[in-house]
Specification:
Elements (H helix, E strand, L loop, with lengths): L1 H6 L6 E2 L16 H17 L4 E4 L2 H4 L7 H21 L3 E4 L13 H11 L4 E6 H6 L5 H10 E6 L16 H12 L4 E4 L9 H15 L2
Parallel strand pairs: 1-2, 2-3, 3-4, 4-5, 5-6
């Protein structure tokens, strides 16, 4: 992968997802050794690719088991963030905590939630991400983004809310303008990753080009 990326001169700005579905971070049945081995290997690979940010979404890994205390689950996540932050700092990487909608996880669903987790971890290499699709799925607003974004926002994901598709124009969603206005109000100048699904493999080149034009125009 590194040789291919070097060949095509494509930088790796950020990596996403982080933990695989078999890795559990909260509950009574956490294999701490497996968690540590996984994040150390993952961050080593991200650093080798030159990534600045590793997005910590992993909704399957941070879900609170039925009957388990949500407060304990939150504390476990905060402790893991402290550990992961230490490893990330060694490798010059920042962790971007991602909120995922309640259809994917029962923990950490909004930007206010990821900020609360980052504050609990209190680590300079633990910061936050906002994802437009998840924001809309949660019927959330940009209020918490505007309140905390200057201190915590380091990356953002974007996708059209309908079918989690590739956006192409401001007219698709009346909240697009509000979201980009919020980013501009924050003076945001970091990255925007397209995280969604094209209509088909064949349409991907066209949709990707349209989305790049859209994002450049919307973020000006």
């Amino acid at each position: 992968m590194r040789s291919y990326l070097k060949e095509v001169s494509l930088p790796v700005y950020a990596c996403n997802n982080f933990f695989t579905a078999d890795i559990k971070l909260v509950g009574e049945q956490v294999d701490a050794g497996a968690v540590r081995a996984f994040y150390q290997r993952a961050l080593e690979r991200a650093a080798c690719l030159g990534a600045r940010y590793v997005v910590f979404g992993s909704p399957w890994s941070k879900s609170c088991p039925e009957g388990f205390s949500r407060d304990r689950a939150f504390d476990q996540l905060a402790q893991w963030c402290c550990e992961i932050g230490d490893e990330a700092r060694k490798r010059g990487v920042v962790i971007a905590l991602e909120p995922n909608n309640r259809g994917e996880t029962n923990m950490i669903n909004t930007f206010a939630d990821v900020v609360a987790l980052a504050k609990a971890a209190d680590h300079p290499n633990i910061r936050c991400l906002q994802d437009y699709y998840h924001l809309r799925a949660e019927s959330d607003t940009v209020d918490s983004l505007l309140e905390y974004g200057k201190d915590y926002l380091v990356h953002t994901h974007f996708a059209r809310f309908a079918q989690r598709g590739f956006p192409a124009s401001m007219e698709e969603d009346p909240y697009y303008q509000t979201y980009f206005d919020a980013l501009k109000a924050l003076g945001y100048c970091s990255g925007i990753s397209m995280e969604g699904f094209p209509e088909s493999r064949e349409s991907f080149p066209r949709e990707a080009a349209d989305t790049c034009r859209f994002l450049r125009s919307a973020s000006r």
